[in-house]
Specification:
β5 (140-145) and β6 form a beta hairpin. With 350 residues, this protein is an alpha+beta fold. The longest helix is centred in the first third of the chain and has 39 residues, at 4-42. The strands form three sheets. The protein has a nine-stranded antiparallel β-sheet with strand order 3-4-5-6-12-11-9-7-8. It has helices at residues 4-42, 105-115, 172-185, 256-259, 283-291, and strands at residues 74-77, 90-95, 123-124, 129-133, 140-145, 151-155, 198-206, 209-213, 221-226, 236-237, 246-251, 260-265, 271-279, 296-299, 305-316, 324-325, 327-333, 338-342. 22% of the residues lie in helices and 29% in strands. The chain folds into three domains: 1-45; 68-96 and 272-348, no CATH class; 150-268, no CATH class. Keywords: Membrane, Transmembrane, Transmembrane helix. The chain crosses the membrane at residues 17-40.
Length: 350
Amino acid sequence: MASLTETAYLTRRAINWAILTVIAYVILRFLWGIFLSLWLTVFPPKPPPPNHAFGKLPTLAFPTPSASPSGQLVFRLETIEGSVPRASESAAVYFMPKSPPNFLGIPKTQEFAKRLGLDPTPIAESKNIYRFQDPDTPLRRLRYDIVSNNFILRYEFGLDTELFPSQNLPLPDAAIAEARSMLQTHDLYQEDYVGGEVNTAFLKLIGNQLVTTSAASGADAIRVDFFRKLIGQMRVLSPTPDQAPISFILSGSRDNKKRILQLAYTYWPVDYKTFATYSLRTSLAAWQDLQSGNGYIARYPTGTTVVVRNIYLAYYDSLEAQTYLQPIFVFEGDGGFLGYVPAVNSDWIE
């Protein structure tokens, strides 16, 4: 039978070995983690091949004028890499569900018009488009699509000569808060806009048009644009990249009915859980398409020579209904130039 001294000795040895084993395990696990991380960096696993689950996709419908004017420009590439950077070989394409016709569409729209202070009596422009007037402020009207729920609320500011001398124009942060509050009040602030980029621009009345101005002191209105948040690391861009599908133009008027000069609301839902992966054309092929006049010019440069500095992938958010949210190549250049080229491999485009 072991003595108490032997028992204590053996217990201490067991404890020491247990501690050493735990330390060795922690060190080996840490080293294995470093090794695995380095291995995956040097030899990254290949992504699964594109599944092309939606079949052939419809051609992206860019606005008119068509893409051909890009062929009248002279392009020069001056990227950091010194060449066309290599892009991902595939990307996700998301399904965009359509709203079915709803027999409650007109009553719902009438209620919305009433909450905005308009006469709820609808004036039909077409099967889906209805107009609502403001009996107290005749220059104010709402044009609403009862199927898509997209609309434009507008005050004809060009016909109101007494509107702009009132200078109570909100600063950018206050304008954003005011616009966002209205969207939230009417349940229009969609989840994929929460956390998205919000831009502002001061506007000045020239003739009967509001144009961008850098001077806040002489501005007559302020524009607020809400953009969708990033999808992964990719931006979502509209045909006019400086103007979002959801935007406000606010005046300095103290009259609530003249405060919003325009609220343009175009929102096409995206089902982010229903997507497929598609092979992409190479960035070099997209660059050649742009040079050949097969790109859409979203923002023209100041001259006819374009120096392209940056090329990346983004998603195209059309103002017209589309079935799928598709990726595009974006070309940024000097003089404010911005060009788009469809990114999905042409074999998978109708």
